[in-house]
UniProtKB/TrEMBL annotation:
Residues 2-212 form the ABC transporter domain. Gene3D superfamilies: P-loop containing nucleotide triphosphate hydrolases. Pfam families: ABC_tran. One of its GO terms (molecular function) is ATP binding. Transmembrane segments: none annotated. Keywords: ATP-binding, Nucleotide-binding. This is ATP-binding cassette domain-containing protein. The keyword Transferase does not apply. The keyword Cytoplasm does not apply. InterPro entries: AAA+_ATPase, ABC_transporter-like_ATP-bd, Bact_Polysacc_Export_ATP-bd, P-loop_NTPase.
Length: 236
């Protein structure tokens, strides 16, 4: 329940779901259905008023969430900090990010000096640089531009094969590409579907404003980019 001075918003009612370890779960939902709230509950940054969230294994911060990074620190320092907090090897993560995102030349520069594109590359590579058991994403599973974007999408598929992935989306195309199991958030409840196609059909019957799905056209992926956080405010 969200409470503001003027209203109360009950987002979920008797929500009960279990996601199998090792699967990739795609959660579809219309605007305002509670996708971000659910990811925050799963990740632990929001606590439920009632009930419990039980996690088995380590869980990543939401993909491309920049909240953990400090603009005055270098990329390497930020990665060491996040790795330390989560019990992983900071130097291994730094090596991975520098190479994967082509940031070797700037990894020891303060992140405030990174261009927007470099920040995006850093955040996506950093999100997958540590071996969490569970990765969570609120709409932005991968991003960046050009060749990096392609490699980043392959990286998601590689992590999907090794870990549990839980992501929200409004895109049927993203569901087809990345989900093993489908779920639909609607009216405060979560409906799960072993067959992703059934989840997509249920969602399309509910959300009249679903992004267009042209069967392979990249346009509905653009929607995925909107939720990438810009952690450091205006660019320098
Ligand atoms: N901090 C908050 N305070 C009050 N109400 C909130 C807060 N965050 C979300 N809400 C409300 O809770 C409901 C669910 O919001 P949420 O952002 O989780 O949905 P969403 O499916 O992620 O939406 P979108 O697709 O637009 O990002 C909405 O009605 C929203 O207005």
């Amino acid at each position: 329940m969200y409470r503001t001075a003027r209203r109360q918003a009950r987002v979920f009612e008797h929500l009960d779901a279990a996601f199998p370890g090792g699967a990739s779960v795609g959660i579809l939902g219309a605007r305002g259905s509670g996708k971000s709230t659910l990811i925050r509950l799963i990740g632990g940054s929001t606590l439920p008023d009632r009930g419990k969230v039980r996690r088995v294994g380590s869980i990543s911060p939401p993909i491309a969430s920049g909240q953990a990074y400090h603009a005055a620190l270098t990329g390497r320092e930020n990665l060491h900090f996040v790795a330390r907090v989560n019990g992983f090897d900071g130097e291994a993560a730094t090596h991975f990010v520098a190479r994967f995102a082509d940031l070797e030349q700037v990894i020891d520069q303060p992140m405030s000096t990174y261009t927007r594109e470099r920040r995006a590359r850093f955040m996506f590579a950093a999100s997958y640089a540590m071996p969490f058991d569970i990765f969570i994403a609120d709409e932005a599973l991968f991003g960046g531009e050009g060749a990096f974007r392609e490699r980043c999408s392959e990286l998601v598929q590689a992590r999907r094969a090794q870990s549990t992935l839980i992501f929200t989306t409004r895109s049927p195309q993203m569901m087809r590409r990345f989900a093993d199991i489908g779920a639909v958030l609607h009216g405060g409840r979560l409906y799960t579907f072993p067959n992703v196609g059934d989840a997509i059909r249920a969602y399309l019957s509910i959300d009249r404003n679903a992004p267009p799905d042209a069967g392979g056209m990249p346009d509905d992926e653009e929607h995925e980019e909107r939720s990438i956080e810009e952690p450091f405010g205006p660019l320098v």
